[in-house]
Structure formats: structure tokens, C-alpha cells
Amino acid sequence: MGETLPTPPGGAEERFAMILSVAVGVFLLALKATAWIWTGSTAILSDLGESVAHMAAVGFAAYSLWLSSKPEDENHLYGHAKIGFFSAGFEGAMIIIAALYILYAAILSAWRGPALVHLEIGLILTALGALLNGTLGWHLLRTGKRRSSIILEANGRHVLTDCWTSLGALAALALVRLTGWVYWDPIFAGIVAVNILVSGIRLIRRSVSGLMDTADPEVTRIIERLASDETRRRGVTYHNLRHRNIGGAHLVELHLCFPNDTMLRDAHKTATEIEDALEQNIHPAARVITHLECGDDHP
To answer: DSSP character for 214?
Structure first.
């Protein structure tokens, strides 16, 4: 059929990725707390603060992943997958809160005057944290994109922002060690804070777009091409095409126009074939609803 959207989500792989995220997050939280206690670094404290926010977001993301896998019920006729947009928004909010805290800590440290000790221990522990976060973030982001999971993708981006805070702390400690100028510590904390603030705002925007059913032009183009191909080969036309992302699938609605002498039985069969063809080629999944009309009703 030509172009399709990404492949469908795989529940087992998503669950494993989330469990891995939680386990690594707990370990890194302890690692950064140890590094901060030993060094007194504001940059490491800001890294620790980002990890605390991240763990809160991971908890919500894990709950969202579990809820999104539940089937439809009488109160949620389209399932629960749209919780993914809330999860992305929550992660974005946590990132923004962490960024504002880091800025506050950096300004306070610069005002009072930084005091750092045991820089070698801080360098080793922070480097280890950055390596683990970078690897985990890359894995989550890749899995989320491949499985079309906004929950994992948002979590991966949050982990990568955590990696940026670790790299910022690492650079600050290295410069302090090389130059002896302790103000590198709050300066890098502030730079990292601005960087992750931008990342958080982007996640919030994506969450709002999903909740407001903002149409993706690329998705629209693909669905229109598929609908045109399937209707043309069956000698019918379509109009009033609409679609929206309901979390784990695209809900697609369109009106089909048949020749006036078409029997209802034949029209229904053709409509079902078109629905099946679209659902098989729109990923991660699709629910297609058609409305049958006579051609003369829409000349």
C-alpha cells in the first residue's frame, strides 16, 4: 500500500523498558545523593533534584502504561490509551519544576559562594550516572518510537534531560578541578536548568496537542492517500474525512458515496473492505467508521 505509520506497540517490551527505567532510576537516585553528600556541589544537588522529579514522573508513567493496556469498558468506550498524553504532560511538568529548582539552587550558591570538597569522588560518580542515564534514555526513546508509545518516549526524553544535568555537573566539577574557580559549579547548573526547561515545555506542548486532537499533517497525508487508493479501485468516492489520535490508535471517519443503483448489500460489503484495508495499513492501529451515501446526494 506504500507509506504506513510506525509499527504497533508491543506490551511485553514496553513493560520491560518501564521496569528497567524504575530500577535504574532508584540506583541513580542513591548514587547522586552519595555524590552530593561527599562534594557539596550545587551542580550535583541540581542533578539530584532532577532525579527526584524524574522518579515521581516514572511512577506516573508506569501507572499510565498499565492503564493504557486495559481494554474498553462501559465508561471508556475507546479504551484508556489516551492516558499517555497525560503522562507526557506530567513528565513535562516535573521537568519544568526540576529546572526551576536547579535555577534557584544555582543562584543561591553563587550568592553565598560555592564550597566544594572531594571532587575526584564526585567526578567518578557523576560520570557513571551520566553513562547509565544516556544508555537508558537512548533505549527508552528508541523503544518508544518503534512501538509508538508516547509514554515510553516521554520517559526517555526525561531520562535524557537527567543525563544532561549529569553531564553539566560533570563539566562543572572538571573545570573546578582544573582551574580552581568554584563558580563554574553554579554557572553550569544554571545552563543545564535552561536546557531542560526547554525540553519540559516541548513535552507539555505535545501533551496538549494530543489532548486537543491536533491533527498531524503527515498522518493526514498518509490516511488521505490510503483512502483515495482504496475508494478509487472500487469505483466509489469519499468526503468528510476526519481522524484523531486516541492514544494507542487513530480513529478515522469518512463518508463513502456509491452510485444510485448500488444494492445496500453490495455497498456494505465494499465499505467493509475499505475499512479493513485502512485498518491494516494505518499504524500503530486504527478504528475506521464509514457512512454510506448515494452519489447524487453529494454531486
So the answer is: P
Do 187 and 71 reside in the same domain of the chain?
Answer: yes
pTM, full prediction:
0.68
Ramachandran quadrant class, 198 (left: phi over 0; alpha: psi -120 to 50; beta: rest): alpha
CA 219 to CA 24: how far, in whole Å? 35
Tell me whether residue 31 is in a domain: yes
DSSP string of 170-207, one letter each residue? HHHHHHHHHH--TTHHHHHHHHHHHHHHHHHHHHHHHH
- At 159-202, the pLDDT tens digits run 887 788 788 888 888 888 888 888 888 888 888 788 778 878 98
For residue 85, CA distances in Å to 10, 208, 221, 291 come to 18, 7, 23, 29
Host domain of residue 231: 217-297
As for how many domains the chain has, the answer is: 2
pLDDT tens digits, 224-234: 999 999 999 99
